[in-house]
Amino acid sequence: MLNFEQTFLEWCKQENIRVISQNPILYGIQLFVTDGKDTVSIHLYNKGTVLIQGKPCPLLERMEKQYSKAPSPVSFDHIGMDEAGKGDYFGPLSVACAYIKKEQEFELRKAGIKDSKEISDPRILEIYRDYQNKVAHEILVLMPAEYNQKYIEFYNLNTMLAWAHAQTLEKLLGRVPAKVAIADQFANPRVLERQLLSKGQEIKLIQQVRAESDTAVAIASIFARAAFLQGLENLRKEYNIDFPKGAYGVEKIGKEFVQKYTREKLFYVAKLHFKTTNLIVR
Fold it and tell me: Are residues 35 and 143 in the same domain?
């Protein structure tokens, strides 16, 4: 056991914090700890970095006070994968894979690269413009017409999403020497694993909860969000309608669109399998 792990475990013992379980992860170990009321996940990496995860609670505050509040970078060459538009009724689904090198980690963290959900849309587009030529990546964009056709083929969103991830990963692996890829965990990890193509099957795929804490996944999420925003903007220009983001409160715009362009045209701007479609066309 590393001295760092021993020090951490000794501190837990002194603080009456019990280790529930330990699991090996890439370049380190994951522990679940409890104070008898709350539970927190801790990633201890071999070089002494710490990643603390959990819902806001006194135990989490104690951990963050003892160690660093911000996750420390885990420096190794790898690919991050993420998507955008999955929960948006209008606009495309976009999937991005980004490959970052060990030496890029600090620069990206310093530049404020984090989960796209924590960054404004204008800033998302700025980051994409700044880093699209600095970070090797691939983006797959399924505009609504192609999305709807693919959904007819798969008839399952998770399977279709896994297919899109696998396609994008395979294309990026054709030009970068990655050995590891990290993605947000699917409800059933086998769904993504079954879709992997030849190159994707040769690397180590890690699926983990809150994967966006990883820098490569974070910038992939930014690239995917930028592609979604660009796709939505293209639809706005084509139909002269400001399509809203999200899936709630969009019926009014949907009905206005149908009245102006007919219900058949929804195929080209919206994800038709959403229940929202029934509210719009009924």
Answer: no
Contact indicator for 97, 220 with CB cutoff of 8 Å: yes
Find the domain containing 133 and state its range.
78-234
Distance in angstroms (rounded) separating the CA atoms of residues 94 and 147: 10
Q: Are 137 and 178 in the same domain? A: yes
Model confidence over 114-158: pLDDT tens digits?
A: 888 889 999 999 999 999 999 999 999 999 999 999 999 999 999
Closest CA to 165 of 222, 97, 227, 214: 97
For the beta carbon of residue 44, count every other beta carbon within 10 angstroms: 23
Q: Indicate the residue type of 261.
A: Y
What is the CA angle 85-88-89, rounded to 5?
130
Residue 244 and residue 85: Cα distance in Å, rounded?
12
d(CA 89, CA 145): 13
Rounded to 10°, the helix 215-239/121-131 angle is: 110
Q: Are residues 89 and 197 in the same domain?
A: yes
For residue 121, which phi and psi values (nearest 5 degrees)? Answer: -60, -40
What 8-state DSSP symbol labels residue 90? B
- Say if residue 70's pLDDT is above 50: no
Its pTM stands at 0.76
CA distances from 138 to 69, 82, 167 (A): 31, 11, 10
